[in-house]
Amino acid sequence: MGRSARNRVIDGFVNSWRSHLLVTLSGNDEGRPAWVGTMELGDDAGFFGPGSASWAVHGGMATMVAGIRALLMQTLHPGAMAGVHDWSRYREDPLGRLGGTIQWLVTVTFAATEQAERESSRVGRFHDRVAGTYVDAQGVERPYSAGDPELLSWVHVVFTDAFLASHKLWGGPIPGGADRYVREWATAGELVGVQDPPRSDAELAAQLKAFSDTGVLMGGDRVAEAVRFIRDPPLRRGMMPFYRIMFAGAVASIPVEYRRMLGLRRAPLPVVWATGAVLGLVRLLLGASSTSEDAARARINRLAVS
Fold first, then answer.
1. What whole-number distance in Å separates Cα of residue 109 and Cα of residue 112?
2. Is the pLDDT of residue 290 over 80?
3. Host H or E run for residue 7
4. Which of 9, 177, 232, 240 keeps 20 to 30 A from 44, CA to CA?
5. Residue (of 298, 300, 282) closest to 60 by Cα position
6. Which residues lie below 8 Å from residue 211, measured CB to CB, with a gap of 6+?
7. Closest of 22, 113, 102 to residue 58, by C-alpha
8. H, E, C per residue of 64-94
9. What is the distance between the alpha carbons of residues 97 and 89, in angstroms, rounded to a whole number?
10. H/E stretch holding 143
11. Measured distance CA(121)–CA(40) in Å, rounded
12. What integer is the mean pLDDT of 201-220?
C-alpha cells in the first residue's frame, strides 16, 4: 500500500471515529446539538462565567472520565440504585440518558441564568414521578423518591467529587482551586433541590465520608448489573478499546473502599497515564474549543457591546 493510500485509510478511520464520538456525546456528527445554539441567547453571563472554576472543570476532557466515575459511585446508594433500576431508560436508550445528563450539566455551566434555571426545572419535573421502595443495607424495605433530600445529596456529592477528582488527575489548574469549584457547583445542587450542599473541598470529603460511616452504602446484584453495563456500553467496536482505558482510569481514581463495594479492582497497568493519553487523542480529534463555551462567549460578547 502506497503512502497516499495509507493516509486515506488513516484519515477515514479518524473521521469515522470522530463522527461516532460526536454523535455519542452530542447526538449529531457536528458536535453541536440544537440546544447549544440557544445558549447564545439570554441577558447575562450565567451563574459562573469566564474565568470560573466550573467553566475550567466542565470544559475539559476529563469530564469524559468523571461521568464514568460518577455513574459508578451513584450505584452504591440502594435508594439511588432503585430509582435507576425502576425508572431509568439506560438499558433501552443509554445514549439518550447520557445526552440528557450532558444537557443539564452544560446548560447550568454555560447558559444564561434563566435558561439554567429552566433546564433544572425540567430535571426536577422528571424527578417528581420517580418513586418506589428499596431494601436498605440492613435489609429493611424503605420508600424512596428522587426528591428525597438524602438521595439528592448523594447524587450531588458523588457528582462533584467525581468531576473534581478527575480534573485533578487529568485536567489543568482550577481558578480559585478545589474550594472554589465545590462552592460554585453548590449552586447547581440547590437548583435541583439539594439541601446544604458542600461549599469547600473539606466539606465535600466530610459529606462523602458521612455516607460511608452511616452504613447506607452497599453493593449487591443491582450494583453488579449496573457496573457490567457501564463497563461494556453499546458503543461502536472501534471505540471500545479507548473507552475501556477510560473506564479503567475511572476505577483507578475511586478510593479502594468504594471499589470493593463495586466489585472492582484497580488494573495493575499504568491506566492513569493511559487515560491521559486517550483524553489527549480525543482533544486532538475534537479540537480544543468547546461549542458550549463558544456559544456562551458569543452571548457575553454580544452583551458587552450592546
1. 9
2. no
3. helix 3-26
4. 177
5. 282
6. 77, 154, 157, 217
7. 102
8. HHHHHHHHHHHCCCHHHHHHHHHHCCCCCCH
9. 7
10. strand 141-145
11. 20
12. 94
